Amino acid sequence: MHVFLEMPNHADPAYCARIMYAFRLFCAIYGHVPIVEPACGPAPDVVLSYRRSSQQTGRSKRPAVFLSRGYNARHFRKPAPAPHRYAHESIDTVVHYEPIGADAPDWLGEIFEWVSCADEYSVTDRDTAGRPRYSATYMGRHGLNAGVPYAAVAMRCLQREICRVVPRATEGPDSPRDGAHFVIPSHDVDYFPAGRFRAANRLIRNAAMSLLMAKQPALGLRQLSMAAKAVTWDGYDPLDRISALVDEELRRGISASFNFLVRHGHRLDAHYTLGHSAVEETIRWLESKGMEVGIHTSYLCLDTPNGLALELARFHKRGLFPRGGRQHWLRYTMDRLIPAVERAGLAYDTSIGWSERAGFRAGACFTFPPYNFAQERASTFLEFPLVMMDQALQMRWNARERMFEEASGLLAASRRLGWGGISVLWHPAAFGEGWLPSVVGDIFWSLADRRAEWGDVWTKARDFHELARQRFVDVGLLPACAPSPTTEIDIEEYIGAMDELNGENESRSLPDCRMAL
Fold first, then answer.
1. Is the pTM of this model over 0.85?
2. Are 180 and 454 contacting, i.e. CB atoms less than 8 angstroms apart?
3. Structure confidence at residue 516 (pLDDT)
4. What percent of the chain has pLDDT over 90?
5. CA–CA separation, 397 vs 412, rounded Å?
6. Do 65 and 46 meet the contact criterion of CB atoms below 8 Å apart?
7. What is the Cα–Cα distance from 136 to 38, expressed in whole angstroms?
8. Are 10 and 153 spatial neighbours (Cβ–Cβ below 8 Å)?
9. Which residues contact residue 364 at a Cβ distance below 8 angstroms, ignoring those fewer than 6 apart?
10. N or C end of the chain: which has fewer CB within 10 A?
C-alpha cells in the first residue's frame, strides 16, 4: 500500500525529521511504500495527515487518517510527558499525548517517543555501572508494564485507522518470510575454561552467591561439590558449556550468535582475551559449525569515543569480521552507544534491553535503526532489541512455571504484534547448574522446542540481518550500501597500546575467566 504523510504547516526541521523517521519505520514493519513527495511516483492509497483543514483539497479526497499533533520536538535531554490511559473500542493502552477532538492520537509521535528512547537521555539516576536505573526510566517511574511493546501497539493502532478508511487493507504487519516471527538466540561468552583450579575458584564464588544472595542452598551445595570435582578430576569443568550448547542447537536445527570479548581491561571483564590460541580455535570451530561470532565489548569500551572501533580492529587483525554484537554488562547509554556502533561500521547491535528484568526497553518487538539525535536521522545499523536474558528471569522468579510464563508471554506479545527480529540471551555457563539453576537452561530449550508450533524462526543475527535489511533500505531508513568504519585505525599501534595498558602477555597461560553477573 502506498501511504503519503502530510506534515503540519510550519513544522520545524527537527520535528519533520523525527516524525518522518517514525513514518518510514511504520512503513518498513507493515510493508507499506512511503510517499513523501506527492507529485512524484504513484498516487497514494491513503493519506496520513496532520492538517484537518486539508480535507477540502483535491489530494485529501483520497482516504485519509487525521492525526492529532501531540508531539513537539523538545530537546532530547528533557523528559517525556507523563502517560495517559487511552481506551477506545478494543484499544486499551497508554499515550504520551491525548488526542484532540475527532482526530486520532498522534500515533507517529508515540512510535517515535518509544523507539528513540528519547526519555532515557534525561535520566541521571545511574547504577554503579553507569547504566540508567530501571526505576528511573519511563516505564519504571510511571509503573508501566515492561512486557508490553508500546511502540508496536501504536503501530497496530495506526494500521487500524488505515483499515477503517481502506477496508481492503490488512491489519497485521508484513513479515519478510511467509508470516514467520523471528527470534535471534545469542550467547555472550563471559567465561572461558582456564584449568581446574580456576574453574574451582569460579564455582566456589558462584556457590557463595547461591547460598548467601540467591537463597538457594541446595544449588550452592551442588556447586561446592562441582568445585571439589573440578580440583580432583582433570578436565572436569561444568562451566565449560559451549560445545554441549552447540550440539543441542545443531540437533534442533538452530543457528545462534556467540559474542566474545576482546580484552581484559577491568575487573568486571571476563579473564580471557582474543589473543589466546584456545579462544581463537573455539571461534573457528563455532564458525565451522554454522554459528556466528560477534563482538562482546569490554566493560570500558564506550568510555572512549573510538573504543568499539578499536576493539573490533583486534578481531580484524586475526581475520575475523563480526557484523555486530552486544555491550558487556549492557553498560551503555544511548548517546554513547549509537555513535560508537556507527563509527565501527557494524551492521547490527543487540544491546537495547535490561539486565535485571525482561521486557521491551524501547517499546519495540521489532528490529529498527535507532534514532541519532545528534544528527537528526536514523542510524546506519539495525538494532535487534534484547527482550530477555537468563539471569533476569532467575532474579525475578524461582518457580519454573513463572519463568516460562513470562518468557513465553514476551514472545507471544511480539508474535501477536509483529514479525520480530528480537534477541534473547543465554550465557553458555547458564546451562548445567554451575552458575544458575538448571531450570533456567531448561526454559531456553522449552522455548526453542515450541518454535514450530508457534511459528517462530530461530536464527543467528547475521542471517536475519541479510533477510531484513533491504526492507529498511526500501523505505529510506538505511543507506543502500552496507556500513563501513568511519574511524581510521592503526591496528598495530592500538594493539600495542592496549597490551601496555592491560599489562597483558598473551603468550602466558589462560587466566581465570570470571563470570560477569
1. yes
2. no
3. 31
4. 85
5. 19
6. yes
7. 43
8. no
9. 114, 115, 149, 151, 152, 383, 385
10. C
User: How many angstroms separate the CA atoms of 262 and 495, rounded?
Assistant: 11
Q: Say which CATH class 181-193+239-502 falls into.
A: alpha beta
Distances (CA, A) of 160 to 34, 155, 303: 17, 9, 44
Angle between the 334-344 and 307-317 helix axes, to the nearest 10 degrees?
A: 30
Q: Quick: pLDDT tens for 175-231.
A: 999 999 999 999 999 999 988 999 999 999 999 999 988 889 999 999 999 999 999
Q: At what angle do helices 491-502 and 307-317 cross, to 10 degrees?
A: 110
All 3 cell numbers of residue 459? 536464527
Q: CA 123 to CA 48: how far, in whole Å?
A: 33
**Is 505 exposed, middle or buried, given 0-12, 13-18 or 19+ CB atoms closer than 10 A?**
exposed
Answer positive or negative: Cα dihedral of 440, 397, 143, 124.
negative
Distance from chain centroid for Cα 209: 28
Return the closest-CA partner of residue 385 out of 188, 184, 180. Answer: 184
- DSSP string across 347-360: SEE---S-SSS-S-
Q: Checking DSSP bridges between strand 91-95 and strand 84-88, what pairing results, if any? A: antiparallel
Residue 491's pLDDT band (cuts 50, 70, 90): low
* Percent share of the chain, pLDDT over 70: 92
What are the pLDDT digits (tens) for 317-353? Answer: 999 999 999 999 999 999 999 999 999 999 999 999 9
Nearest by Cα to 34 from 160, 71, 42: 42
**DSSP collapsed to 3 states, 430-462:** HCCCCCCCHHHHHHHHHHHHCHHHHCEEECCHH
284: DSSP letter: H
Look at the alpha carbons of 6, 8, 11, 17 in this order and tell me if their dihedral is positive or negative. negative
Q: What does residue 358 show for φ and ψ, rounded to 5 degrees? A: -90, 155
